[in-house]
Known about the structure:
The protein has 10 helices and no strands. The protein is mostly helical.
Amino acid sequence: MTREFAIVWAHKDRLLDGFANTVWLCVLATVIALAVASPITMALMAQNRPMRTLARGLVDGMRCIPFLLLAYIIYYGLPTLGIRFNNWTAGLCALVVYNACYIAEILRGAWASLPREHIDAGHAFGFSGWRLYRRIILPPILMACVPVMGNQMIQIIKDSAFLTIIAVPELTHEASAIQSMYYVPFAAFISAVLLYWVLCRIVEMLVGLIERRAEKRR
Length: 218
């Protein structure tokens, strides 16, 4: 067993490269997914019924699709329609599209519980449409759903492991490469699990820090 961990340690650079790629991919996916989720959230709360129905269908439909199948469709299926992505872009697109719908639903729930006085005050100051959402609605609902958003970011981290199927060189992919080369599955995957745990703990700590600062400002 010690020998197996020694082999993994000898290839720690490869494992850490996968860890860094996972961090970069998940941070980028979270930021873009949040940006994509905002117009979807506005559509979910729109007075226009067809727009609201279309947004609801998109969100509900995406939440019913396993992430693994979505990654397959984007990387292997879309080339049939003439749309081709490399493995990095396909993986990022899958993470963004899938999680943007979850984030949109999170934001919608927080918006629905937002006191009407906030929105009325925004209208009184001449805000409407996107400006109303960005300046008046988004800040308080983001602060209200910080713990849930933290959970969603952890979900993005876990979803990223599936991208090994399209050869994205993230953490699971690099751990698999080490174990297939030297047949040290226990040591390789336990090492990957520990790195995922560290990353998720960092997210939890950041969420706790944001919550404490928000409490002080109230």
